[in-house]
Amino acid sequence: MGLSTAAYSPAGSPTPLGTATARRRSVHQFLRPRRPLLATVRCSVDGAAAVATETPASRKDCFGVFCNIYDLKAEDTTKSWKKLVNIAVSGAAGMISNHLLFKLASGEVFGQDQPIALKLLGSERSFQALEGVAMELEDSLYPLLREVSIGIDPYEVFQDVDWALLIGAKPRGPGMERAALLDINGQIFADQGKALNAVASRNVKVLVVGNPCNTNALICLKNAPNIPAKNFHALTRLDENRAKCQLALKAGVFYDKVSNVTIWGNHSTTQVPDFLNAKIDGRLVKDVIKDTKWLEEEFTMTVQKRGGVLIQKWGRSSAASTAVSIVDAIRSLVTPTPEGDWFSSGVYTTGNPYGIAEDIVFSMPCRSKGDGDYELVSDVLMDDFLWERIKKSEAELLAEKKCVAHLTGEGNAFCDLPEDTMLPGEM
């Protein structure tokens, strides 16, 4: 029995999420696997007594304020709001999501006039935790958060979504070969790509966070042929943020002075933090930081291995800063890029101006007009040092692509990875 993510009207008739209606129901739907909906409760906006219709047992199963019906057109504070945006989040009971969901609900990401619906995807094992997450969202009283639904079926959860943030993935366990991780997580993203292709908005924007995120994004887009390949992203923004921080530390400035930083390639230890094009207070980094040895060796290695060092210090992965980087990545697509600057994102390489191999997902410099789309930056400097490292990361991604050929519709898989380059801390 599939889980429904329809928003139920007080009379019990389903209304699809995202449908424009004069009176929109704002509901936290707690839909339990293989259980009937136990009750429907209608509450008035002005706080008058609630009218409850209970079936089949005499118990209430509605969660407080999200049982209310809101007339957004009639309220001065909401009538100027934009159309509801549907956002799906997989791995919604995990630590990254625990930080991210509240940022989304607060308006920090999409703006203070943008109401949202959160559609949270978990598993049977995590379903009770999903209920807890939704309860915390309810207790936070976010006015922009108009709907929340939870479920374990991506074909239900992804219905009509405008954004899909794919965080959930299996972590790498002790002794697990990287090829095995690619196959296990690849199956997850193949299934989610098929679900997005079937039921999501035709212009859905997809951000893949679960590792190995570049190749998972490739698998996902290959299984969603009706969605533009350009709409798929692999998260490399945390790597960019880490690079900016290290350059600021070395130059003795605050990190808002650092711009034009690119992470090229794979989200692994072959990633290439680009100091050739980066700027500090408008000047090229190499004109500010004269220590070429530090730039080529210590800076690069520090960025590549920052996640592992953090785990050694903190005893856990970088969930909070990952959530912040997801926010940064989305905002870079929904707000215009500052003049002359750019941002990093793992995107589809076909048609790229750099000579990087086509048909992989590779982190490159992007600009956006704030409409959710982007263009690749063509005016970048390139030297032998940078190009040599870009080609190494490219080779790794081409090898990963062969490992998952059975998941992308390209025949039998052949896995011959050159070395183990998973980010430290993911073992």
Automatic annotation (TrEMBL):
GO terms for molecular function: L-malate dehydrogenase (NADP+) activity. GO terms for cellular component: chloroplast. Residues 86-233 form the Lactate/malate dehydrogenase N-terminal domain. GO terms for biological process: malate metabolic process. Residues 236-406 form the Lactate/malate dehydrogenase C-terminal domain. PROSITE patterns: MDH. It comes from the Eukaryota. It catalyses: (S)-malate + NADP(+) = oxaloacetate + NADPH + H(+). Residues 1-23 are annotated as: Disordered. It is an enzyme of class 1 (oxidoreductase). It is found in: Plastid, Chloroplast. Its EC number is 1.1.1.82. Pfam families: Ldh_1_C, Ldh_1_N. Keywords: Chloroplast, Disulfide bond, NADP, Oxidoreductase, Plastid, Transit peptide. Its main location: plastid. NCBIfam families: Malate-DH_plant (TIGR01757), MalateDH-SF1 (TIGR01759), PRK05442.1 (NF003916). Belongs to the LDH/MDH superfamily. MDH type 2 family. The chloroplastic, NADP-dependent form is essential for the photosynthesis C4 cycle, which allows plants to circumvent the problem of photorespiration. In C4 plants, NADP-MDH activity acts to convert oxaloacetate to malate in chloroplasts of mesophyll cells for transport to the bundle sheath cells. Homodimer. This is malate dehydrogenase (NADP(+)).
